[in-house]
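RETRY 2/3 - previous attempt timed out on the joint model. Re-submitting the same 810-residue input unchanged.
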Amino acid sequence: MERKFVLAGIGGQGVIFATKVLSHAAVAHGEQVIASENHGMSQRGGSVQSHVKIGGSESPLVRRATADALIAFDRTEAMRNLTFVRSGGSVYVNSPDGLDPALLPRLSELNIHVHALDAGAYAQAAGLTGAANLIVLGFAAAHSEFGLCLDDLKQTVRTLGPAASIESNLRALDIGAAKVTSE
Amino acid sequence: MTTQLLLGNDAIALGMVQNNCRVVTAYPGTPSSEILAGVVKFKKRLNREIYTEWSANEKVAFEIALAASWSGLRAATTMKQVGLNVAADPLFSAAYTGVVGGFVIVSCDDPGPQSSQTEQDSRLLALTAKVPVFDPSTPAEALSMMQAAFELSERHRIPVIFRPTTRVCHAVQSVDVNGSTPNPLLAAKTGFQKDPQRWAATPAFRLKLHHELNAKLQAIEAEFETSPLNFINRSDAQADRTLGIIAGGVTYQVALQALSELGVSVPVLKIGTPYPLPRKKVAEFIARFDQVLVLEEPDACIELQIADRTHVTGRLDYAVPNAGELSPEVISAVLATVLKNVGVAVPPQPDDALLDSLIKSLAIAPRRPRLCPGCSHRSAFYTLKRTFGPNAIYSGDIGCYTLGTNLRAVDTCVDMGASVTMATGFAQAARLTGDKRPILATIGDSTFLHSGIVPLMNAVHTDARFVLVILDNHITAMTGMQPSPGNDYTADGDLAARVSIAETVKACGVKFLRVADPYDQTPFADLLKEADAFARSPEGSVAVIIADRPCVLYDDTPIETEPIPVVITEECDGCRYCVEAFECPALILRADKSRVDVDYSICINCGQCIDACYKGFIIPKPMLVEA
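RETRY 2/3 succeeded.
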């Protein structure tokens, strides 16, 4: 079954790396993948967005209101890209206080589930500054409806390297996953 | 079968390596920049002897690859769509002369535009130059199509354009990398063979070559009629006659997805070779339907070649928007309208208007790209602006430093090298209008070597009076750190002769040349004043300053002096001067706008912002300790 993801953040937050982990994990699982990345100007601190489609058509872009999940590394970028999420889909967002309260009643009516965690703070506390992206990804993967399991992501992180960051990236995935039970 | 996740540009590179391409030249430009690095990666991995180079500009790249082709080798050159304009002169000529070894010109289009000054369609330039076009729709197709491109070029002895768009170049797809078998080189490996009536043709022979080119195109069109690159996505004899679609490039994939999301089944003729268009095949397809919709990017090329458009809708009758990317949302909206017009019921679009309006009401500001923390361009622009004020004329150029617009120190941006020529033009116009404002041009090192030298000679020769600041950060940064002739290494990482920008400037006849570190803001400001005074003095001329400091991303030890950590004192009143006039991403205005904080996770301790608070609230850290 086709699964569609949108990843969003700010240049430098590791949106492309998280996209890579997600895509490679799906390929390792024997799935067909097509993804779309931002390059160029957007990498100079602007909004960065990537689309990942697993097991579906060869079109690299996700149409608005059809994504199964939005994975956002920044609260504002989550809200900017919220229209990508389909009714019944999920939002995983790095934010200490979820999304703007004004949006919540409509999101609830659309059956869009918002899962927020303060990945920035957890990253800092664990001495993993710069790995907040993988904390959010681990957090998302630990939700049963996400469709890719944590172990697949961890195996991918081990394969992708670089060697020096494998341990911290694995820890980041675990920290995120552990937060699900306490949600 | 080996499945690998491949970036579209890597798929193009692998296609070149697998198909015995022996020379690849390039000038970087989004979205084409990763192709040459991919060729270097794959030639090393597969142990192939391939000459690769980052050329000084696209015309240089084109001609070097062309000579390789005339020497009997397969050759390719890669660039972005506006780069092909720079190489347009040899493109038009090479179409007439033809080639020997297969010659593939990769020109990447940028609908949107995401990172370009125009949404130009390389296919239309190809049509004007009379050069066949291959238009892949995915990374997987880009890999397999490269073989057809080289073989056609070699068979018909004609250059071909390979035209992906951003969404192919920067898509990542699981691709069967062993699917394409290396094919033998058709041309004899004999080196360049003299044939002056062709390779140095005078106008009389050019006419003959033009007839020859037209005959080639006719033969190629006939070949394209039966090419597997042009196919109907389903051979459904029972298909409804109501609507058919003709699509090419990534738009084909987006259209298929949109049709499946709408739950509608419509036959689609996929065109992989938009020029010369297989007109018979297209006409037969059109004849099967009451109406045919043409979907292509970024302009009309297929549609333009359809002679009878009575039953055709697309860009030319404004059914498809004529600017901007054909995103899934745009295509599904176009499809919904067209389907409704022909009486096919479609489900409502899935977008939730209420959620959309709620998000709009939050007025989320666009997050514009900014220069990196510690970028030396920021220091140069900030000092320029402080020295010459808001009224001076700031003539800008293409690179990271186009972002000098954010700091209001770039007023114009036309194309590569235009900072120097536009400043020259402003100076000549100012003589006539009596305009005394200072004229400041800024250009990067790679852009100066690309197309700033000839304009500088011109400025010297015509006595145009302005100050040119060459922002030398030692690398082509915007596109991902490619070397230029100003670097001492090649695309392969081997040692190379470094061309001195300073010596080049002197050789152009410039009488005022200084090299300075823009991090030393006060001396840099003094130098700018001195340069402006020289440019204005009767015995003066154009003045050049090289602002010399490496890119913070390219060189991780750019700060030769001690790091200068800063703090913002308690007195900060959130006046926003620093965040607006200096715009460092590490200076963050608090959400309640009460004060500015330093984001130490991205601050690189350059200390350049100290002067960006005119109230003196940004101070070096040790000073606070002493106090």
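The mean pLDDT of chain B is 94. Closing ticket.
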